Amino acid sequence: MTRRQLTLGAIGLLIAAWGFLPEFTVTMLNYIGLYALVTLGLVLLTGVGGMTSFGQAAFVGLGSYATAWFCTAPEAAAWIGVIPESELLPWIGLLAGLVLSTAVAWFLGSVTLRLSGHYLPLGTIAWGLSLYFLFGNLEFLGGHTGIAGLPPLSVGGFTLRSMHQLGIMIWSILLLTLWALHNLLDSREGRAIRSLKTGRVMAESMGVDTARYRIKVFVLAALLACVSGWMYAHLQRFVNPTPFNIGIGIEYLFMAVVGGAGYLWGAVLGAALITLMKQYLQDILPSLLGATGNFEVIVFGLLMLIVLQRFPDGLWPKLAAMVGRWLDRAPEVTGQVSEAALAARALPEVGSVVLGANGISKRFGGLLANNQVSLDVRAGEIHALIGPNGAGKSTFFNVISGVDDPSAGVVTLLGRSMTGRSSRAFAAAGLGRTFQHVRLLASRSVLDNVGLGAHLRGHRGWIAAMLRMDRFEEAALISEARRQIERCGLGSHVQDMAGSLALGQQRIVEIARALASQPSVLLLDEPAAGLPYQEKQALAALLTQLRDEGLAILVVEHDMEFVMNIADRVTVLEFGQVIAHGSPTQVQTDPVVLAAYLGGDTVEMAA
């Protein structure tokens, strides 16, 4: 039995048993489903995207109050031109809640997500409290008393009055959401979302607009909370501010963390555990310890501490690992896909200047890291940039790849001025790069990491990914990623976690990721560092092959033997200035270069 078969079997069992479950059990399942829908948004936002939010309960409130007002206020029905008892009002309330939540989330995300560190969660607490008090102080929303008399939901003329009937809708929406989010994360867009947590600089260099993706994830989480609030309002048939306070927002975050913040099914597990724990603690503890104190809060807090200490990644990965021992692995699909499905880029004519830097200077306060540095990289050549530690190589590397803006000078890529442009623009124009300190998604497979490099070669968006309408393009992207992995000699590590590889292999993964973007120029920052001799030879052969295919390559490297054996031209930096430029032979015999590397006295003694 595979995981998919087990999941479908569990869903089938729930469907078969639903009509026979007692009312209390169905009620608890309904609340678990509603809480899990909010928690799914937090898994996407916090566990996958790396943005901690304590304010999701406020978006639940927006969904609840939007439908409550449209369903009970006579002026709302008159404004939209329907009779007050119309069955359309709850659905109009849903639409209004989604629009309102989108607008509020987009505005709050644009402001809040600029913050980093502990300021981000503090910001979410601030607007969460603001919205909570807003609900209680608006008279047309009933103040702290709330709004009563909401009508039941109707679908196709059939009224959902009982808990069993509403539960079918709640769990259908929850399961469809799980399916859609699983599809989203298993796609080109999903790889970009996963890069937001620990690899934003790297993702920008792959062409991912991380600021835009962060806001989109934030809005999606708000919409899921809004839908949950809409169903909650019609389940309760009453709305007041109490269920939308900051304490409930913290509980939602607990559900995500306890279940497993990086796992979709962890949201369901966390919602179930905390909902049941609260319910049974409230029933059991008063009979044991008396009803005069809130002992359930104390015990609940202690249990949370124990769970968080023993299971820092949540309970779902442990549970999945235990069950996984008894399951078969699903067969891997490796169909052949035509590369014509991907955007292709023609390489420039051999010998033409692909990347140019003219008079580049870079200051950090009073420190001049680069001073009037000029060089060019041509198609069909390997250009090496060398120099002692602290010479300014990495700073120059970041400037000519768009990570940093130059203080003075001009950077051109394929004849176009790129000065002041973002690293995304450099990637879109045809620049691929690696990093001095390896930047990979350590908990993701080699295939996922390299697939991220091909991000700009795909175009299908979030909706297409959720509905699996991007499968042909996704198969083409994965096929290209596999090809580059095998090309770089890591074919046996395709499904290995990138963080489990040796440092030298991780550097090769970075090269494969850069090649997946089909660049016109490739910037390699110390690619041979950490590689044993045999792997260095294989890397040299790969770079030579890429050069012969017409690719322009700029290499920053400390291994002089490696550099001199593969480079066509060499530029030497010292204290941020160019001190030599020429062929490997010319540079090796240049007394100024020897003095920079060996020291002046040593050079004179050698002479």
Describe the 3D structure:
This protein has 607 residues and is of the alpha/beta class. It contains 25 helices and 14 strands. The chain has a 6-stranded mixed β-sheet, with helices on both faces. The protein has a 4-stranded antiparallel β-sheet with strand order 6-5-8-9, covered by helices on one side. The longest helix is centred in the middle third of the chain and has 27 residues.
* Percent of residues in beta strands: 5-15%
Using only C-alpha atoms, the radius of gyration works out to 29 Å
Which outline best applies? elongated
| Mean pLDDT, all residues | 88
Number of strands: 14
Distance between the termini: 75 Å
Q: What does the largest sheet look like?
A: 6 strands, mixed
Strand order of the largest sheet: 10-11-12-7-13-14
Low-confidence spans: 334-340, 601-607
Oligomer: single chain
Helix content: 55-70%
Structural class, judged by helices and strands?
alpha/beta
